[in-house]
Every structure is written in structure tokens, then in C-alpha cells.
Design goal:
Helices cover 46% and strands 16% of the residues. It has helices at 2-21, 51-56, 63-74, 107-124, 134-143, 151-154, 178-181, 186-205, and strands at 42-46, 83-86, 93-95, 100-102, 128-132, 159-163, 166-173. Strand 3 and strand 4 form a beta hairpin. It is α/β, with parallel strands linked by helices. The strands form 2 sheets. A 5-stranded mixed beta sheet has the order 2-1-5-7-6, sandwiched between helices. The chain has a two-stranded antiparallel ribbon with strand order 3-4. The two termini are 25 Å apart. It binds uracil. The site of uracil (URA) has 13 residues, from loops.
């Protein structure tokens, strides 16, 4: 399985290099892939890597990653037991004369990464996928052939998806970076992650 995952990531790297050659803006040539154990109880699915993730080649190691680590600790979830990845594997950027900033992936960029995401889900085979923010939830809705779900009404509860015959338990969470801009989301996020921790404990005991 690990070889299959490495082959999947190598093919995605080649696809992104080809897209870079077509003049896309973004760090297409430095993708960041998932890391963690296969068949975990939990997969965390973010939006796309940022600057620090791209520099270090690992998901969620910047500011959002620090918030994520604190939330996981709160819920008694050990990060090394979790598979961490992103819906889009490269950092989408806006490039101005003197600055480079993050931007959300475009609908086309998200759609183009979906086949890789589907294979990644199949190979990693987690018991639960927790989506972080709107973009990864939208990606799973697209893969499952469902209308997009608004995170404000579905966060903190378990949803059942079916993706190409593959059943998937999906637990939507707000993005850990959202609390940097909106402190009022922090208690909600903490409550949701604590609930996720309890669900994962039940899976362990079953
Ligand atoms: N935000 C994400 O969605 N993913 C990362 O890897 C880092 C920040």
C-alpha cells in the first residue's frame, strides 16, 4: 500500500509540474503530500499547504498547524497516530510586484486534484475523515456527488458519504486558522474536537 501511495504522489507531482509549465500561479513545483500511518482511526483533510508547509514539505507545520496541534492535544488525539493531508497538494498564490500571498484554490484547481484525493482516501483507508474548513468539505461533496454543505450547519457531527462505492465517515470541523481571524469560533471548534476525540475513543474500544 505504501508503494501505491508513493506512486500516486509521484503521478500527482508530475501532473502539477505539467500544469506549472502551462503558466499557472502557485507553488505547483513544490507540492506537499500527506503524512502519517495507513489505516488510521483519523485522517485530517485541510485545504492546501501554505508558505511554511511548502518550505518544509510537510502539511500543517505553520501557524494553522500550531493551532491544530493544540486542539488535538485538548481532545487527547496524538498527531503521530493521524494521517494529515490536504485536498489540494500545492500552495495557491497571488503574486504581486513585491509580495506573494495565499489564495483559496480555484474551482478548477480543486476539481483537477479530486482523482488523486479519491485514490488517497482509498489507500489510506481511515475510519473517520475530519475536514478542516469549507474547501475539503466541498471536495468530498463533489466526490460523493452531493450538493455543497455549508460548514456552519454541519460542523461537529458525523456525516455518511459514499464515494464510488467507498463508504466514508466525515466529521466537518472549522479550519484551525479560522480562529486566528474570528476568536468567537474557538469555543465551537474546541467543543467539536472534543466530541471527535470521544467518538474516536469509542472506535478504539469497539
Ligand atoms: N492550511 C491548510 O489547509 N493546510 C495546511 O497544510 C496548512 C494550512
Amino acid at each position: 500500500m505504501e508503494e501505491k501511495l508513493s506512486a500516486l504522489y509521484a503521478a500527482e507531482r508530475a501532473r502539477l509540474h505539467a500544469a506549472a509549465a502551462r503558466g499557472r500561479t502557485g507553488e505547483y513545483e513544490a507540492p506537499v503530500f500527506g503524512e502519517g500511518p495507513l489505516h488510521p482511526r483519523l485522517m485530517l483533510l485541510g485545504e492546501a499547504p501554505g508558505a511554511e508547509e511548502t518550505r518544509l514539505g510537510r502539511p500543517f507545520v505553520g501557524k494553522a498547524g500550531k493551532n491544530l496541534n493544540m486542539l488535538l492535544a485538548l481532545a487527547g488525539i496524538t498527531r503521530t497516530c493521524v494521517y494529515v493531508t490536504n485536498a489540494v497538494k500545492f500552495r495557491p498564490t497571488n503574486v504581486k510586484a513585491r509580495s506573494i500571498s495565499n489564495r483559496p484554490p480555484s474551482p478548477a484547481e480543486l476539481a483537477e486534484g479530486l482523482p488523486t484525493l479519491k485514490d488517497e482516501l482509498r489507500l489510506v483507508n481511515p475510519s473517520v475523515v475530519a475536514t478542516l474548513g469549507n474547501t475539503p468539505l466541498k471536495a468530498l461533496c463533489l466526490l460523493g456527488g452531493r450538493e455543497p454543505l455549508p460548514i456552519g450547519s454541519v460542523h461537529g457531527r458525523m456525516l455518511k458519504f459514499m464515494i464510488d462505492g467507498m463508504p466514508l465517515c466525515v466529521f466537518p470541523l472549522y479550519h484551525p486558522a479560522s480562529v486566528i481571524y474570528n476568536r468567537s469560533l474557538l469555543p465551537l471548534l474546541e467543543e467539536d474536537v472534543t466530541c471527535l476525540g470521544s467518538i474516536l475513543n469509542e472506535i478504539k474500544e469497539a
